[in-house]
Description:
The structure is a single chain. By secondary structure, this protein is α/β, with parallel strands linked by helices. It contains 10 helices and 10 strands. Helices cover 37% and strands 28% of the residues. The chain has a 6-stranded mixed beta sheet, with helices on both faces. The chain has a 4-stranded antiparallel beta sheet with strand order 2-1-4-5, covered by helices on one side. α3 (104-110) runs parallel beside α6 (148-160). The longest helix is centred in the C-terminal third of the chain and has 18 residues, at 178-195. It is globular and about 45 Å long. The mean pLDDT is 94. The site of adenosine-5'-triphosphate has 17 residues, from β2 and α1. This is Branched-chain amino acid ABC transporter ATP-binding protein. GO terms for molecular function: ATP binding; ATP hydrolysis activity; branched-chain amino acid transmembrane transporter activity. InterPro entries: AAA+_ATPase (IPR003593), ABC_transporter-like_ATP-bd (IPR003439), BCAA_Transport_ATP-bd_LivF (IPR052156), P-loop_NTPase (IPR027417). One of its GO terms (biological process) is L-amino acid transport.
Amino acid sequence: KTQETLLEVNNIEVIYNHVILVLKGVSLQVPKGGITALLGGNGAGKTTTLKAISGLLASERGEVTKGTISYKGESTAARDPAELVKMGVIQVMEGRHCFEHLTVEENLLTGAYTRRDAKGVADDLELVYSYFPRLKERRTSQAGYTSGGEQQMCAIGRALMSRPETILLDEPSMGLAPQLVEQIFGIVKDLNEKEGLTFLLAEQNTNVALRFAHTGYILESGRVVMEGLAADLRENPDVKEFYLGMS
Length: 247
Ligand code: ATP
């Protein structure tokens, strides 16, 4: 299938605190309806790339100093996260970030706080519960007392409540047992296939990410060093040796 590019990052440089150059010319394209993986080790610049897209850099004293980012052909420069959400893009931050003192359901509803369509919100809550039955079981539990996997589900569910078109998912596998990682990636795949959601996901777990993604980019020290179809990257000897540990 031929795919429209939803998100286009063109040669961006990002600097923190006016001095620390972290992204040194990153370009990537996210096709509509695809799962795109952003791979690379610790500190390669994955999180920074996602934050540059979602408007979250400013709060970290980071700045895009070169290059452009556009969503559906419209520049996202100078837009804050709330404006990006309106455009259809939302980031699920690393570390899950649930409100610990709120219940699971209250957490989910915070994702819909700008919406005025009560019926739509109620329907979307049921939609989230259909993908994450575990969250329904835990809906009256205080989020702080739920497991890491449940909190990751809650963070994704909350993002879904804003009715996004594109989800930027930062390190969904972090700190989770392999079985849960499979489960969460399986749900991401279902959301992609059944709801048509587009994903850009940052992962250190190359193995799992390349099994679920369609295309991938590998970052090293703020540069894209490899890109291609996930199936091709999986077979690439360098990827096998350096990222899949199969030399
Ligand atoms: P990780 O998996 O550890 O999150 P990453 O690939 O997502 O890795 P980034 O978090 O984007 O990498 O970090 C890239 C580089 O930018 C690192 O060297 C990091 O120390 C630096 N960095 C990140 N955030 C800031 C900040 N707020 N101020 C200064 N430097 C930062």
